[in-house]
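Box 3.1 A note on notation
Throughout this textbook, protein chains are presented in two layers. The first layer is the amino acid sequence; the second is a token string describing backbone geometry. Keep the layers aligned when reading.
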Amino acid sequence: MLAVTDRRIAVIADGRTALDVAIDGLRRIQFDIEKDRPATLVIVPEHATHVPQVLAVRPVEYEAVAAALVTIGQRLADGKPGGNRPDSSADTPPNGDEMPRS
């Protein structure tokens, strides 16, 4: 189970807390979706004292994981220069196509 608040992320596995860190304590988070398999969510903490977590994610869980990733991404962006400031270059992917605006 994955739990995310506006400041922390926790992974509960086999009835125990496998990971509980501040979002700012994450080095990397990766979400891979493959055809005909569960997706994989990889959570890598900044400090080696916390074990990286690899979670299988079923398609019915994609929406909840996506919402958690938005929370995590926004929190990480808040801690970086220009993290939440509008940037017109962010609207143009490397291929030059315009990204849809919401």
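The domain at 2-78 is CATH 2.30.29 (PH-domain like). The mean pLDDT is 85.
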